[in-house]
Design brief:
Layout: E1 4-12, H1 21-43, H2 48-60, E2 81-87, E3 93-99, H3 105-115, E4 120-122, H4 123-133, H5 140-143, H6 146-153, E5 176-181, E6 187-193, E7 214-216, E8 221-227, H7 229-235, H8 237-248, H9 252-263, E9 271-277, E10 282-286, E11 290-297, E12 302-305
Helix pairs in contact: 1-2, 2-3, 8-9
Length: 308
């Protein structure tokens, strides 16, 4: 049976001239590690859902990316994290928004799917649920990163919000996600993010919104997005890829191209997405300078890339 997995670590303005070979290798190694963790589950007959959760968990634990440990600071100097998971054969999904001190938000999203009776919970309610489910919590010090703090200090006290991937190549990168097809023919997707630097009013982006930043359906594809969240929400980007396949009969690459290069730019939607279809075809596309990404198929070969 064909199977495969793809991951991303954010898309946006990546200054190639500022990204040294050494730093590029660090990012590639982190992506490759996430791929190997997910691929190991798939190769042993595990589920796509377990694979994407493991891959995203690996990226959340890596301070290089804006998710979990590497999350950006909000306007109050806190971390508010979002995550979602979805499995394609049942269309079950779980998501959390605006959670703090949860080591791996993707695990909490999975618990929401499996044990809450809901799809999306947020804020203090999600934190209470995390306590009930005994998911691993960490104190604020665990999430502190000097570079993220300096990013916030540049705009603290102003009305400015910043996508973490709108700067140069010296620092951290963006939202993380994974999509997978398992040996049983099932698809799954997962996405996790720390949102935007200096965000206010408990702003929530596309990552935890099913159909906007995360979607999976066995009849079509699994999708995880990264970029300007407001635009991806308005475009219902992840579901639109699936809908173009289901209703117009487009191949995965055609559907992704339509959304990423035609629909999103009309809404100032800079960014990209990763997707895999029920036949194991993988597409990783973006309409900006770069996207931290990688994929691995049934042969176990790991491929990572940043620029085109």
């Amino acid at each position: 049976m064909n199977f495969g997995i793809a991951v991303h670590g954010g898309a946006g303005t990546v200054a190639q001239a500022e990204l040294t070979a050494h730093r590029e290798q660090i990012y590639r190694d982190a992506l490759a590690d996430a791929l190997r963790r997910g691929h190991g589950i798939l190769s042993s007959g595990g589920t796509a859902l377990d694979a994407v959760a493991a891959a995203v968990r690996s990226l959340e634990d890596c301070p290089l990316f804006n998710a979990g440990r590497g999350s950006v600071f909000n306007a109050d100097g806190q971390h508010e994290m979002d995550a979602a998971v979805m499995e394609g054969h049942t269309l079950r999904a779980g998501a959390v928004a605006g959670v703090s001190n949860v080591k791996n938000p993707v695990d909490l999203a999975r618990r929401v799917m499996d044990g809450s009776g809901h799809v999306l919970i947020s804020g203090m309610g999600a934190f209470e649920f995390a306590h009930r489910e005994k998911v691993l919590l960490e104190d604020d010090e665990y999430f502190f990163d000097q570079h993220r703090f300096e990013q916030w200090q540049e705009v603290a006290g102003t009305q400015v919000v910043k996508l973490d991937h709108s700067g140069g190549g010296r620092g951290k990168f963006g939202t993380v996600g994974a999509v997978a097809l398992d040996q049983q023919g099932h698809l799954a997707a997962a996405t996790s993010t720390g949102g935007m630097t200096n965000k206010r009013w408990q702003r929530i982006g596309d990552s935890p919104i099913i159909g906007a930043g995360t979607y999976a359906n066995d009849s079509t594809c699994a999708v995880s997005c990264t970029g300007n969240g407001e635009s991806f929400i308005r475009a219902v980007a992840a579901h639109d890829v699936s809908a173009l396949m289901e209703y117009k009969g487009l191949a995965l690459a055609e559907a992704v191209r339509e959304v990423v290069h035609r629909k999103l730019p009309l809404l100032d939607g800079e960014g990209g997405l990763i997707a895999i279809d029920r036949n194991g075809h993988i597409v990783l596309d973006f309409n900006c300078e770069g996207m931290y990404r990688g994929h691995s198929g049934a042969d176990g070969a790991v491929v990572t890339a940043i620029f085109r």
